[in-house]
Amino acid sequence: MNLIKVIFMDYIKGRGAQHNTHNKFLQHSHEVLDDFLNYCAAENEDADQNKTAYLEIFPKTIVNKVTSPDIGASFSMNPYQGCEHGCIYCYARNSHEYWGYSAGLDFERKILYKKNAAELLEKKLRGKNWEAIPIMLSGNTDCYQPIEKKLEITREILKVLLKLKHPVGIITKNALILRDLDLLKELASLNLLKVNISITSLSEQTRRILEPRTATIKKRLETVKILSENNIPVNVMMAPIIPAINNHEILPLVKKVSELGAKSVAYTVVRLNGAIGEIFKKWVEKTYPDRAEKILHQIEDCHNGTLNESRYGVRMKGEGKFAEQIAMQFKLARKLYLKDKKIPEFDCTIFDKFQTNQMSLF
């Protein structure tokens, strides 16, 4: 029993989730038996290799209609399913169950990629019924997660958007976005781009715990600065606010990103729907054993006594006294540091699906 206890208490480095939850869509479940763990320990072998697998999939479409009234976008596209960043709180974890995987470790270690995404996008935008409506890249998982450095799917998507002069919003927490600065500058010069950089904390220690494989806080702050210096409008997402972990950083974080050129900030309050509740609870008990109960109770205080909140209109901001305090802090922060700043509107009038403004060769 001692061997088993040691194995279970070991922290899986570089990962957010510390186990795989059962997939609610599957009849059977996978269980690691004590005999196997004891055997691995006796043989000095790893029970889990903790490696990431990249699997190509072949979708027929890439643009998704967004029906949630809480999301400020009508359409989104996701070149990747699953995300190696491993953010423990990520709402997208539940979507991995639709692919037959767990919302836990599988979400971080089974990455599905859509190599034909740019081709599908161009086909969609050139359709006779498509009119220019801003598309969010991505609405689910990060389009600049580590494998993008090799595959360059997001870069190819941006090339299509620039060629057809179509508006796009980007949300990421990876400094890899700066690789595509050439394309971003051209899109921004035509008012076709808004960039959202996700920064949940100014503490590198907190970042490593919450978001193990994301860019460092220093890199993300540099990204805000460089994008802003190149006239690319930046909104910073402090998402999510997690009570007793990062809620005390609202004012200093907004002040810092404003000084670096960000034009606006937005936030969400953490919500733990579906399998995320189980994943987060086990993680917080392992990571913050001294205050796990406090964190969970304060999250419940933001969602009418439950960790699970799905109601439109309140799920993103929460309710109750604690949620009100968060909202008041952001209101004050915007008044102090972002009073005269504003994100420009998209220009949807120059979309050119047939490239009629290109000079003919004949």
Automatic annotation (TrEMBL):
InterPro entries per record: Elp3/MiaA/NifB-like_rSAM, MJ0683-like, rSAM, rSAM_sf
MF GO annotations: catalytic activity; iron-sulfur cluster binding; metal ion binding
A Pfam family of this chain: Radical_SAM
Domain of life: Bacteria
Stretches assigned to the Radical SAM core domain: 69-306
Organism: Tenacibaculum jejuense
Keywords: Iron, Iron-sulfur, Metal-binding
Protein name per Swiss-Prot or TrEMBL: Radical SAM core domain-containing protein
